[in-house]
Specification:
Blueprint (H helix, E strand, L loop, with lengths): L1 E6 L2 E8 L20 E4 L8 E8 L4 E6 L5 E6 L4 E5 L5 E5 L7 E6 L5 E6 L3 E6 L5 E6 L7 E4 L11 E5 L2 E5 L5 E7 L4 E7 L4 E6 L2 E5 L6 E6 L4 E6 L5 E6 L3 E6 L5 E5 L8 E3 L5 E4 L5 E5 L11 E4 L5 E6 L6 E5 L3 E5 L7 E6 L4 E6 L6 E5 L3 E7 L1
Parallel strand pairs: 3-28
Antiparallel strand pairs: 1-2, 2-24, 4-35, 5-6, 6-7, 7-8, 9-10, 10-11, 11-12, 13-14, 14-15, 15-16, 17-18, 18-19, 19-20, 21-22, 22-23, 23-24, 25-26, 26-27, 27-28, 29-30, 30-31, 31-32, 33-34, 34-35
Length: 387
């Protein structure tokens, strides 16, 4: 089954197969459907003011950004290996670790209690930091030259304390909340590209370049495997757990309905799709892959046969997307430093806009959705509030 949507430079092709079938690509022709594509070009009227609350600065390209669970602190890492922890109200650097990792830091992740921060870097190590006094609580070899992926489980799942999942090269390991190793580790045939806890942390999802593996948190035994012919860059499960999306090397998005195994593909993006953002209600998925933002309706049967909303305002490639955790606004950042705040399904779809001095690398709403943190290519860190 195949469906192609074409307008301007955008072509979206949806292909479908079931979990037990091989790929079935029926012949298709491009159909000009400019009247059917829904373009949401930004209206410049009635934009809400946006204020820069505070500004911070690291010494190099920013590689990771994360809010503490209570929203009181913000951690930011740089390719130089520098890591800063900011007071989110005042913008003051509570801790500045000049060389948290030799050769660069690629990931930061807050322990669920907010009292410790895990970091991983290109020195092949990961560390656990006490966020009160800034001391190292634990330091370990990660099992590969680069350690890139960190994810904490939610606290007290099935009566168990939180666990840290670490992906380094093709090796997955689990660690206790105190930074102690567990007996469980898995080596995958391909390099790990993403790690995430899903379904209220009852399952650990691990993405490699050609598959998504779902694992039990206690033994790391494999529960389910989703194979992909498209090289996977990242993944995003809907909060409900029904939909699994991957952004791929071949400028496509791969979709699985985890209830029935049906697969779909959205192809024809201008660039590799590295940005995936779910709305909290699991209905809307926003994707990057070029200057436009595609917002897909995943209610009911999912995005198959539906045209996405296209949010068009950025003149350069979108580099970051994030929905409010408790609201409906979508934030976007681009390589030219432009920042947009959207309410995608409203006629006046753009809420506000701003710009920083270099390209946006990461952005994230605070847990209460009131402050937007933005990090840039030249090390700048901005906290913004939409009035």
């Amino acid at each position: 089954m195949s469906h192609v949507l074409k307008d301007r430079e955008h072509v979206f092709a949806l292909h479908r197969r079931t979990e037990c079938d091989g790929y079935h690509f029926s012949p298709f022709a491009e159909v000009s459907t400019s009247s059917r594509i829904t373009f949401r070009s930004a209206l410049s009227m009635n934009l809400r003011p946006i204020s820069f609350v505070w500004h911070g600065k690291l010494d190099d390209f920013t590689t990771s950004l994360a809010w503490s669970p209570d929203g009181k602190l913000l951690a930011v890492a740089a390719v130089s290996g520098q890591v800063a922890i900011y007071d989110a109200q005042q913008g003051r650097a509570v801790h500045l670790f000049e060389q948290a990792h030799a050769d660069g830091c690629d990931a930061v992740a807050w322990r669920p209690d907010g009292n410790a921060l895990a970091t991983a870097g290109r020195d092949g190590k990961w560390k656990l930091w006490d966020t009160a006094d800034g001391k190292v609580l634990a330091e370990h070899e990660a099992g590969a030259m680069w350690a890139e992926h960190l994810a904490w489980s939610a606290p007290a799942v099935a009566g168990q304390p939180p666990l840290l999942a670490l992906g380094a090269g093709n090796k997955l390991t689990l660690w206790t909340e105190k930074g102690e190793p567990t007996e469980h580790a898995v080596k995958f045939p391909k390099t790990i590209t993403d790690v995430a806890w899903i379904l209220n942390s009852t399952t650990l999802a691990v993405a490699t370049s050609n598959a998504i593996s779902l694992r039990t948190p206690t033994t790391l035994a494999e529960e389910r495997l989703f194979n992909s012919r498209d090289p996977i860059l990242n993944m995003a499960f809907s909060p409900s757990g029904k939909w699994l999306m991957t952004g791929n090397q071949d400028c496509s998005v791969h979709v699985w309905n985890t209830d029935n195994g049906i697969e779909m593909h959205m192809r024809g993006f201008p660039a590799k799709v590295r940005q995936l953002a779910w709305h909290r209600a699991s209905r809307w998925l926003a994707t990057g892959g070029g200057p436009s933002i595609s917002v897909w309706d995943c209610s009911g049967r999912g995005p198959e046969g539906r045209t996405p909303l296209l949010l068009e305002w950025h003149s350069d490639a979108v580099s970051a997307l994030h929905y409010q955790p408790q609201g409906d606004w979508l934030a976007s950042g681009a390589r030219d430093g432009s920042i947009g705040v959207w309410s995608p399904t409203q006629r006046q779809n753009q809420i506000s806009r701003a710009k920083i001095s270099s390209g946006v690398t990461h952005l994230a709403w605070s847990p209460d959705g009131k402050v937007l943190a933005v990090a840039g290519e030249e090390g700048e860190v901005q906290a913004l509030a939409v009035e």
